[in-house]
Amino acid sequence: MSATTAQGSAINQLIIRGSIVKPPRMKRSPAGVPHLLLALEHRSLQQEADLTRQCYVRIQVVVSGDWAESWSTKLSLGSEIEVSGFIQRHENANGIPRLVLHAQNIKQV
Asked: Which PROSITE patterns match (predicted)?
């Protein structure tokens, strides 16, 4: 399936490198699909408008499916990883939205 859908151009890809700042947590969906939840923190210096800018972000990462269980034994608090995948809007129980990165590839760095 291509990145183009009936809605037009649908590119949704994020690559970020950072460290895990909360202990990884495993859970299962009502359908029994395993999900590994990670809190990833990224800090760097970036160039914008010929100026150096401090960049900081913390984002939740979800690893789903069979490989979630495999990664749950390899990742821990403080692990440095590079994650690529797509972002999706999730709402918490109070209806507050946030962006979540759904991992399609993980690399330990």
From this structure: SSB
